[in-house]
User: Fold this.
Amino acid sequence: MLEVAGLKVFHGPIEAVHGIDLAVGQGTCVSLLGPNGAGKTSTLGAIVGSVRHEGAIRLDGRDLGRMAIEDRFREGIALCPEGRRIFNNLSVHDNLRMGAATRRDAKGVAADIDDWFARFPILGERRDQSAGTLSGGEQQMLAIARALLSRPRILLLDEPSLGLAPLIIRQVFELIAELRRDGMTILLVEQNASAAVEVSDRVYVMANGVIRRAGAAAEFGDGSGLMDELTGVHA
Amino acid sequence: MTRLNASQRRGLIGALLLSLLILLIVGLYALWGESWQARVLYAAFVNLIVVIGLQTFMGNANFAVFSHAAFMGIAAYAAAICVTPVAMKAVSLPDAPWGLNAFEMSPLASALVALGITGTLGLLTGLFMSRLTGVGVTIVSIAILVIVHSIFLHRTDIFKGNQALFGIPRIFGLTHVTVLAIVAIFAARLFRESAVGLRLRAAADDEIGARAMGVDVHRARLVAWVVSTLFFAAAGIAYAFFLGTISARPFYFNFVFLTVAMLILGGLRSVSGAVFGTLLITIGLELVRWLETGPTLAGVKLPQMLGLSGLLLGVVIVAVMAFRPHGLMGNREIEDLVLPRKGTS
Amino acid sequence: MDYAVQQFLNALSFGAEYALIALGLAIVFSIMGLVNFAHGEVIAFGGYSLAVVGTILTGNPLILMGFVLLACVAVAVLLEKVAFRTVRDADITTGLLTAFGVSIILQNVFLLLGSPRPVAATQLIFLDRTLWLGPVQVSSLQIYETVATILAIAGLGLFLTRSNLGIAMRAAARDFEMVRLCGLRANRVVSGAFAISGLLAGLACIFIMARRGSAAPHMGFDPVLTAFVACVVGGFGSLPGAVLGGFLLGFLEVGMLVLLPQSYGGLARAAVFAMVALVLIWRPDGILSPASEKGDKI
Amino acid sequence: AQEETVKIGLAVPLTGDYAIYNEVAGAQCMAEMINAEGGVDGMPIELLIQDSGSDTQAAITSAERFMGEGVVSIGTIPFSDTMIPLAQIVGQNGISVIQAQSTQVEMHAGIVDNFISNVAPDPYTAAAAANHALEQGVQNVAIFTSDDGGSWSAKVPEWFAEVITENGGTLQTTLNYSAGTSDFSPQIAELRALDPAPDAVYISWAMPEIGILIRQMRAAGLDAWVIGSDGFDDPSLDALADEDPALLDKVFFGTLAPSQPGSRIDEFQQACAEIGHEVNGLFPALGADMVRIVAHGVEAAGSTDPAAVREAIRSAESIPVMSVEDVSFAETTSYALREIPVIGFENGERVLLSLEVPENVPAWN
Amino acid sequence: MLSIRNVTKTFGGVAAVADMSFEVAASEIHGLIGPNGAGKTTMINLISGFLTPNSGRILLDDTEIHRMPPEQRARAGIARTFQNLRLFRNLSVRRNIEVAESNVGAGADRSLVEEAIDRFGLRGVMEQTPDSLSYGHMRRLEIIRALALRPRVLMLDEPAAGMNAEETEELFENLEWLRARHACAIILIDHDLKFVLQASDTITVMNMGSLLASGLPRDVTANKEVVRAYLGTGQN
Ligand SMILES: Nc1ncnc2c1ncn2[C@@H]1O[C@H](COP(=O)(O)OP(=O)(O)OP(=O)(O)O)[C@@H](O)[C@H]1O
Ligand SMILES: Nc1ncnc2c1ncn2[C@@H]1O[C@H](COP(=O)(O)OP(=O)(O)OP(=O)(O)O)[C@@H](O)[C@H]1O
Ligand SMILES: [Mg+2]
Ligand SMILES: [Mg+2]
Assistant:
């Protein structure tokens, strides 16, 4: 469904990703793993259109290359970004409304928001509080919920477990597994390799801006030695 | 502890380079200049002192403030009232209260009194300025400007308002102001590289982070504020001692805009920026003043287009902000252009 | 009694005018973090367009009022496109200085294309008629102005908290790109904010022109300076704060004119500003400090 | 050495706060007229014009430049904070400051001796207006003062009141305002609270504030005279008649030279329009007088030496000018003692109400 | 050395910290864990002075510090890092450190910071501004900057967030080095349980603002309440 070919990503003059190929099939979950600075976030940035890039990015065969950020979103690509980037000055509820801002079915949106409050009760309790005053983990939950409220066709998650307590991490991965079962297409970036491999169909491992390894999730076992192996090569 | 650290040594080199630039300009004038250009230079150097003073607060603390013209005016009036001979004050300030027209002082003593008064007012205003945040700083600085201006206008018995306070001995010449400008450059550079300057810049980047590192943000701001008012005071004194006549009018918004534009063009984070900005705008304005009179250029008579100079200031500000938001110099100082730092990759 | 009521009404209408202008400043600030000093020139532009259109096209006041609103909205949106878009992500100081630059440019353009002296445009002064409420005389303009301001406040409040676009505007204040990542055309969001501020400027312009009967290059500077002060006193970025500050300033100003002994009359403005400074010492972020609205946690 | 041209420097505000007080248009027109008739003793008049942006330093810089080019006299921003230092500096080269329109009293206190103004100081216009008011039976007056325009806005109303009270009238109240006021409601509420209602209010200020005041007073049912100074003498005041001629029915002002239809200024403006110069209002027109005075001085002195020209101007019994028959500086040395016109309106048209050299001018120096 | 006594902090109706008490001994590493929103960051803000408690006392060696402004506490030896980075963007790495350094007396041990710079691998980037650093380097710079205050109590808020196992291990080693090199207490917040358990001498667990458990790492992980509220059944 999503295909990336020969992708290069630039931050100003710096080339952070050096021509990678990647594919995410309809209804599958693909993990993109790698050490800090590998270029994972940059890759996601290119897919949503927030950084300068070259190469092909195709959604259902259509090239997104020149499309503006908001149009790619309207094509069904939603991102739960690194660093959460919730709207500090808006209430929790308004943050969720922002996630659904492109939807026209007001009733459906309200029902979906209530669903999320049921799933993360703490968010429900903080419904009218400024989101900036939430704890780190609460903000992370909010960011995930916001990304899903648009009912995207493909969901990009950038380190969703960052800053979450073990209990909640488990909940998040259960959520990912559930979404996958429901047919959502997911591209997942994670530091927690074993958990990521467990929910994925396919895994890409990236370092220094190139893909080092790619394969079915099964090939990676429980994902444990993966990072050691990689950073060992590049220490 | 008088040993200077590496940044401070570089600061001295930078100040020296800037001073050489100033001297070079004065030298060029001495060799080939026309007499009216002395006045342009004088005005430019007075502005330079103001802009450098602005840099010490605005640049290091990163707040926009507009009250400098008020402090400059206070010093100018204080110095003028002290130094003007009694006989002259009988004519120029006949109704002055508190015996203000019954004494006179030497120029040096007058300047010191003016610095003292301005510094004290700087301290008093600084006590609350340093506690304000964000736009509040700007607005209170504007309030100070308006309040001081109203008092100048209203107390005509002391300040003569929009009429002239005349008869001030014209003591200063280009040499004096050149020396002052160079002193200002050194002082501002040393301040920027001092512990207070560093803390202030840290607080400007992240106030909470700075406090967590033990920076007393209010104190640092207060010190910078008072120091900057002393620069303005020096400029005000130089203004009064040169022109011989002052009024409330030059110490108001127009002057504020001019000097702020100078600082912005050069880049408010660096002292070198302040210097370059002042020189460039001064030259630019002179050029425009000449162009707008419709001179003949290479045999072509240009049309007369009076009134362009005002436009120029605005265009400079907007263009700089759009294309080089940190001004020509950004974070750099002159020595960074000449001597690259070690370890930068 | 009659006198007191009269002065009270005067203060109310002064306040309404400041509040209207302050709202225009506050909406742009709360969304873009931009201290838009060029707001006064938007008002002046409205005044000039009234003068031009009023003399060459039509004298019909309704059409003219519509035109003034349109002109102000258009110029505000245009300014955003050409001048403020480039400093969208910059810090407050950069934006503030840009706005100052724009304000200087516009004033000089008015001066060069128009004239330093006021240009007559008297088509709207009919709005200012004297009405008698019992013994108290009020100007119809004062009533229009107060009512219009109250409607504008209410409408704006509803818009910003209820509509998607309004919420998006507030969100854009914090993270512009993230708003786009939520699928909203952020340029439109920001243009929308400027359009609203232009609309408010246009309203203020109509009232100001109804009183002045002429346009001049600097006509916007003083009221906007006062409105800016009002915003800060009320709590910059907070819309209720802008309104509160506007009315506070109106009452202070009229109060000073009335209460200060004549020999100190020239210090009325100084006294108003000194009080404002005092308020800010008491509450550095303004009376209705928007700190909670900013929602920053360490 | 004989120059080939008579150079007059104008370091004047074309932009900035004082832009409306410049005398360029009339000076240019008059210079062109004189040059068309062969100039002064065969020398054409050349005007050197620079915009001071209403800034003192800029004006002085320009003046220094003009000095280098050999000007006979210089005109500048008509406020003492510029005129004094500028006169001091150009005085070192013997050059005079000759102003077309300066009414400030300070300039005649003997601080500088190279200053000449083509008009009479402010107290004269205040006294003339007061005298006319008294003739209309005005007894109770209120005055508006402001610090924003220096003595012109602060002191002139007091001089007016002084003349009124000396003749048995009453100063009921002094009200304050600031530049840029666009709503006089609070002051008008004060006026309405006066008992008895005032016969006249006096304000020394200019448009558009004057227009607002008149309108708001009339709307509030106050029909007191609105009296003013030379600031009223601008076409934009006459434009109020387009709204409603009745607005101007009870308005008059003491000014610097007659400017009603049919006056010499009016004729001059029309003549200028014919040769392509738009001269709009009193201040621009008076530039013509200044040029005539300098031309006369050069002719009489037989040279362009600035000091000699000044002497010639000061010793002349009468110097013909544009706005009135002639002026003379023989007695006053620094200003022209002129007949002060008081101008009012009939059906929205200017009419000359009186023309006199007031005898009862308040003490001013 | 640092005592927290019955400290409560409420925001509106929410008690972010409710009647918390615990002690941190000199030169121990004290882990502070708990579910999201438990009040850990709030606790650090209370100790470093960016929040003042509604009630309760905070003492450093018997001196009450809970009314002091943050900068004074920093100079008294309480240093911290932030969950969201707060570096000085326009100052070079060297000057970032100098800001903190300018607050310590002349007698301080100069070599500590220099060694830390080498150990944390920042030597080569000293003249760059933080923006040009990788995220990992920025986090390390925050720690060194806090260290430059020669703290008596160093508080680290989720230092391992976003790090992989390898980097977390390196961080752990650096903490060990630090403890050997400079005697100070460390309060460590993190959700990487393996890391916290490995590094800490004592652990305090918070839940909904209050103390849930405290003690040695192995005691705490065995605590049923902790398992239920934080770890979830069946550890991973
Ligand atoms: N805004 C930026 N400006 C300059 N360089 C950048 C920028 N953002 C990222 N980089 C650089 O690009 C490279 C890839 O960064 P990226 O954030 O994509 O890595 P990542 O794989 O997401 O790492 P992490 O696991 O730390 O999130 C890094 O070397 C980083 O320093
Ligand atoms: N300024 C504030 N205003 C209102 N509520 C706040 C504020 N700061 C914190 N809170 C609330 O207090 C609770 C504790 O927050 P805190 O940040 O201390 O949690 P934490 O333990 O650090 O969580 P995490 O592990 O997710 O970072 C949260 O529920 C949060 O919503
Ligand atoms: Mg990343
Ligand atoms: Mg936390």
